[in-house]
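Morning!

This is the sequence you dropped in the shared folder:
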Amino acid sequence: MTTTLHVDGMTCQNCVRHVRDAILGLPSVDYAKVDLDKAQAVVKWKTDDSAEEELLKALETAGYPSQILSESPSENTKSVGSGWIFNVILGGVVTVSLMLAEWCFGLGSQSWFCWTSFLLVLPVQIFCGARFYRGAWSQLKIGQSNMDTLVALGSSAAFLFSTYGLFFPSMVTHTYFMEAAAIITLISVGHWLESITSSHAAQAVRQLLTLAPATARRLNEDQTEVEVSVATLIPGNQVILRPGDRIPIDGIVSEGQSTVDESMLTGESIPIEKKSGSLLYTGTINTNGRLVCQVQAVGESTSLSQIIAVVERAQNSRADIQRLADRVSSIFVPIVVLCAVATLLAWGFGWNSWEKGIISAVAVLIVACPCAMGLATPAAIMAGANAGAKRGILIRDGIALEKTGKITAILFDKTGTLTEGKPQIQEPPLYLTDQRTVLRLVKAMAGPSRHPFSQALAAYADAAIPFVVENWKEESGSGVIGQVEGKTIRLGSLIWLKSGGVNTSQWTKETTGSLLGLADNEKLLAIFSLEDPLKANATLILDKLRNLNLDVYMVSGDQLIVAQRIGQSLGLQSDHIFGGIRPEGKVDIVKSLQVQGKRVAFVGDGINDAPALTQADLGIAVRLASDVAKESADIILLKAGLEAVPEALHLSRRTLLTIRQNLFWAFFYNIAAVPIAALGFASPILCAVAMGLSDLFLVGNSIRLLWWSNSR
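The structure's back. Tokens below.
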């Protein structure tokens, strides 16, 4: 359930952050999307029960009075930054005209020109300054202050002081109408440019939103085709996909063969082959064949919608590193106002120059920039999240970014992560009873399971006619068990069978594969050796991770001797390889490494990995990971290749570095700029330019992440 609001009082991205924080402060809110240009917020609730009254009260308390809109948010027909264009045009014309007159023609001392300046600047103060005055007033009503407070005070002080000089020219040697207009204009220009660059940083989500087609060709039961709205489709419907079609739903191929371009979701440039039984994802492109697809999910249930939700959640998140900036920001404006008052008094009483004191105080008010501290983290997180989304790397939130900077060890689950996840029969099976009976039992027991080993065995016994199984169930990490003709049949790891009293010593061959047995009560019927091939570049990727000063470990459910052979082929030390580990044991491995003082990243892909992903300091779920594993992970990799792991860590660390750079600049700028303005070394115009540039510097530094390359 969603609620759309019109939000008053927002003037910059820092205001957007405050609005978002106020909304997310409600426990019933899932996430919020705030649009500065449209002055709107879209709130998604965790349940169907909303708390709209509490929402309005929270925004009122934060100083941003809001109204609920009865309709869904309209399409944004305005250009980005259009909310500031009026200020930029009117203020720019007036400011530039006055600058030319004063600086080029020397008219500043003429009485008629002073009155002309007053008449020209008055509309700028009233109409262009209204946005700042409203923002300052809304904060003042709740006993708070923000950047609008500083702009309103600074511009008003310059304008009122100059107006005083019109009526008492002997008391004022120069009027500052140009400076009053320039303050509002230049800061409006800064906000306008900031909105454009920030919008550019958020482009990945907008691109994702355009990927889902609005219509689809439904195949009716009489084999006729009809074009319908995607919203009318339900799971089970059949959809026709022609070459070049963008796929409108998540589904499974029921007929046909083709290749599909999934680059817009995963970053993979090579099209993926699809045939009967293959999964299709919304927004990808069918390239060269006709497919019939059975609908599995539409709308918000599709993978594309879930990816968009993850990216938006990341953009809306905060990092712990931001807390210091938030604490400083909360007292920043009052401190700046006190500095301005101190500047005025020091110049007035110390150097007997009240006029210089007023202008220097105005400069102090204008040069200070609380926006810089507020933008430091969210701008970098937004750019980093979008850079990752374009590469098939989903970073869940700002906390996940911070975790990557502390990781010292990385633990891989072998199956489906270091391996292809497509095991095959490696050696001729050992049959200890009739082969036909074994294959019928294997087909019956392995068929219902989705585990890669079970699927491989089911495919091997595909031609067999399965027995009827009763009370079938799967024991996580061990195997499957059921009743066939009154007998207890188990198919699973030899360790599991041995724990049930089955003698498994009949297999004497050396193998690098995983051994699975079929047993009738305590009688062993057959043993199969399955090997899941390592991914082609696994060794190279692990070397890259070691070059990042990470200790690399591997955990596997295979027998220790098998796990050791595989791990050593990857260049792992023997004490970095864990074999014969049940799913719940993966958590214990993570804990044992943490006890040693290591910060552990766990990389896994299955539902059995969810506890370990949660226990780890950083959880990384790879492509095709189960939904539970994804929910437990901090970073989700949509790419098929293992190279996505170091790429994700590189990007996360780079984003964290950008946050630190931004915070350093924000603090350094304010610490240096305020004294310079107080001592009279910077005019209000120069201070307005500096303030705007400080924000642009932070946003610009952040959007560099959009062009980040992992080529190093």
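Headline: Residues 644-678 form the longest helix (35 residues).

More detail when I'm at my desk.
O.
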